[in-house]
Protein 1
Amino acid sequence: MLTQIPKGTKDVLPAETTVYQAMEAVIREKARFAGYQEIRTPVFEHTVLFTRSVGESSDIVRKEMYTFEDKGGRSITLKPETTAGVVRAFLEAGMHNQALPVKLYYLYSPHFRYEAPQSGRLREHHQFGVECFGAPEASADAEVIWLAMDLLNSIGITNVILRINSIGCPVCRPAYREKLIRYLRGKKNLLCGDCRDRIDINPLRVLDCKVPGCQAQLKDAPKMLDHLCDECAAHFKSLQSYLDAAGLPCIVDTGIVRGLDYYTKTVFEITTDTDAGMLTVVGGGRYDELVEEIGGPHIPAVGFGMGMERVVSLLDALPGDEKKLNIPQSQLDVYIAPLDQTLAPTAFHLLLELRKLGVKADMNHTTRGLRAQFRYADKLGVAFVAILGEDEASKGVVKLRDMKIGEEWEAALADAPRVMKDRVIKQTEEGMSP
């Protein structure tokens, strides 16, 4: 073998792409019904976009970004997240001048982060996410949360917990930040190396540390919820009332801060317990200052990101009767078996006529004999085989074989596509009958 797949990446093979396709179909339907339109942004952006939006003190910028200099001497970064690029496109295309709110979603967006690969997280992974611009009320926060929960429930992932928090705003956060720094400095020698580094540059990230020793030192740490300004407190209370109205139980978790510096007010995570520990399936929140930080007017916004690899891994672990995805069948309906290369053009014409009628069909493209073609068709799981030999050609017919029951019959070559379609439809309907 010339080379192997790079560490932290994954090939999605045909058996799994059908799951992704089914999930993507549900995502598109749910997004459309909620008024979201799709946006696609480049796989790389100018590095400054992420250093300004994500934050130079964040772990993503400091440790995880794939950054390089292009041939023009420009600093370019493979996108570690998509929200910043969506905001850039939102402004560059003048969408901020449209009637607000503007609701956008992205699907199977590739993200690149140089970190230790772990369960459901790769160095190249993909996300579905939504961004709602121009809606300051907590009802918008509740809507994006409801959308994420509704999507997960629709595909069978129900063993999840919604966790919410508020991390304040530029009005109330600075005073809390200083109080938290003073507390953490008193615990500095008891914290892990990463947390010691974060104390002065990004103290809120210490609250999100998963190291047990650090968690033990944070039990008595000051909580942002106790230091919210009146506006943030009212917004968080309103969010809880909307979630209650939607019938969405939640846990207030003061340890949720998210790893990106642009968040304000609402932050949330949807988590699930697995054999590998607690996994975050969805994460998001409000980012009211980000549009302005990137160079636009003050426009509040809220959104979330959902790791698609993680969702698929959770789907794989579900018992068959709990999976709700309608997986498209890639199995062929008809396989055409010409017995002589001189008959291949006739077989090819028949193939195209079947496809025009919506029948999933293929033909022999090798020099296999009839028995080998039957074995191949059996491996493909086709319902019917159409046989074209000299005898059939001389009579102007095609021999059709039902692979399930072994029955064979003949049909006029001109009528064969319609006959085959009728047979496929009948077999499908019989298979669906209780």
Note: The mean pLDDT is 91.
Protein 2
Amino acid sequence: MRFETKAIHIGQKPDPQTGAVIVPVYQASTFEQEAVGKHKGYEYSRTGNPTRKALEETLAALESGKYGLAFASGVAATTAVLNLLKKGDHIIVGDDIYGGTYRLLEKVFKRWGLQVTYAEVDDLDSFARAIRKNTKMVWIETPTNPLLKTIDIGRLVKKLRNKKILLAVDNTFASPYFQRPLDLGADIVVHSTTKYLAGHSDVVGGAVITSKEEIYQSLKFYQNAAGAVPGIWDSWLVLRGIKTLSVRMREHDRNAKYLVKFLRIHPRVEKIYYPGFGGMISFELKGGYPAVERFLATLKIFLLAESLGGVESLVCYPPRMTHGSIPREERLKRGIKNNLVRLSIGIEDKDDLKEDIRQALSKVDKSQQNQETAASPVRVKVL
């Protein structure tokens, strides 16, 4: 069964009681038991729910995994994976990561005794050099957030081979449509289902997928014990969004490629970051933060907002938004400059999006010219 068909059918058979072709919303907190310990597969919705189970089966299938687990947010999913580790363990993390993951590592897990080393994602050998006797996990994003760097998962797997180190990959930016890390040798895949999987900016959720029974059992225990599970309607909304994932990702990709061609030749754009696929673009504007501020203020279709991956186009200023939790010095060290803008390209008409960016950049140019004129000294001819 191919990807597009899986997204619509796996885990989503018609309801056996009514024949409904869409998985019902089982809005139930608890389930009747025939006797103590004898039930029909469900006891309490924190532990398991038919709607959430359908979502988890679909997630596993799309990532070529055996087991899927849904969580209340991407951060909750990340927390579950990090809880596979214990005090004194060491984790190697790619240095270009979501600010929320950095905050979780630095402000939460380090306090619990986790040791963290950041490796340069541009140099895979830096991961190998960072390995210690107590290294238990490597965590990467690819493409990364916000500089959209890509990491060769297969090569990294070879460097970790025979070292009993788990490789966890945040696959949120690529989505399983473009990349399936488990097929490349990764042990764990993490998603913020809020983004491309749900795709409509109307739900917050997360997911973890693996093919390893031991990892799944540990994560399943944590999911139930900690209780950071998605609500039933949230599960249903993500499941609904997944049905159109293939169609949406093709449009995100098409629009982004079209806009990259325009941005690459625009004189106001200093540097552009694009992995060659997908719907995310980051770029640096000439003129520093004043230029960024003007650009953000004059966009009309692009909405200034956190998040990404929805059908509508969004613009984000990482230094103060998604990566504001990373200290300024650390941001600059990692290449996140004060003139960086991140775009989540939606599925609107590509020419409308291009025109919106063009007119905003023209306002930046005009504003810059006015500033330069005002700053120029008045030349008076002496008679």
Note: The CA atoms of residues 81 and 219 lie 7 Å apart.
Protein 3
Amino acid sequence: MVDNPAAKFASMRGKGPQEAKFFWTGGPVEVAERTWFASQFSGCTAFETDEGLVLVDTGTRQFAPMIAAMLRQKTQAPVHTAIYTHGHIDHAYGLEAFLLPGQARPRVIGHHAMPARFARYQATARHNAALNARQFGGTVEAQEGEAFQAFAAQPIAPDTLYDERLDIVVGGVAFEIHHCRGETDDHSWVWCADRGTICPGDLFIWAVPNDGNPQKVQRYPWERAKGLRAMAALSPRALCPGHGGPVTGDTALIVRMLSETAGFLEAVTTRTLAAMENGSPPHVDIVTEVALPKSDSAWLQPVYDDTEFLVRNVIRHFGGWWSGRPSELKPAPRAMLACEIAALSGGAERLATRAAELGAQGQMRLAAHLADYALEAAPENATVQQQVAEIYERCAAQETSLMSVNIFRSAAAYARAGRPYR
């Protein structure tokens, strides 16, 4: 059985120094006075005040008990307020594990767009289960039950919603909550000036920002960049990210991390828009034309998302859904097109063989195109299944981002089962 998403992440930890940064797990780390950070798949920050705890994010249902146990090593204060930086299931679904027996229901704060996200997850639970199955390298059948339940379930919902900014005081400690679209439209970042601590949620994740995810809804790298610059301007003494370990005691480093990430996103956006302005060519031509920014910094490596995919999200927002290819405005059914191309090539096996030849020459992108057509033309052909699966495995082997690696691995699993993506 294919691992669930959390297990898949855990299995990838420690592959190398860059991956270790993103997949950091541990805690509790004291990042400021009476303030602790812990992470198990995703991070949670606990601010102890004289009225109780203020939690920023609460993890997944699966891992929240582990995070709560770590934080309870330091404090037994009840939860007064929980702030969800966004509505992803690894940040907003674990609050129940942090509550003390018999304690009053805490105040829960989120952005006004969050309830709509939770409703969408319920309405499209099977769709999202399928997307996550592919994102983590498996097939829909292998993960459907568990993944479906994750999206169909409801978290403890926010009872306090805000638009652009909300200021609160708990036990004499002040918190600013700011809205910033980035990975999601309901995203927030939290600033506690009294303790010099910034909680960016997934606006900072120790990796190339997840603003390109090829299977998920629209994301906003240009707006994330503005939020990161606003955070950097505060000169935080502690950074508690959505994924990865905390940074404390080095304001210059924190400012650099936030500012460099903003600059990276600005470069992707401006270069993509410049390519679109050059006659609005077809989308794939824009993607191949843009010079992707690269960085030697540990916090800007493509270990989760792929920089090329960020270009796609800029195009999607500014350029609509049509690819720009005339044939793709009202395309023929893929199976029909695949059969025609296979016939012109001398059959699906010949097409798959040519794909394998191109793969052996290192032309994996071209090989994958032909592999798609071969499998779609003859999904029950065992020879085609094997050749195509091997091509997808080779595609996965040359990638660095979890997104690319696992989608190709998922495609290989589907190929072996005689089931092309359609």
Note: The domain at 5-259 is CATH 3.60.15.30 (Metallo-beta-lactamase; Chain A).
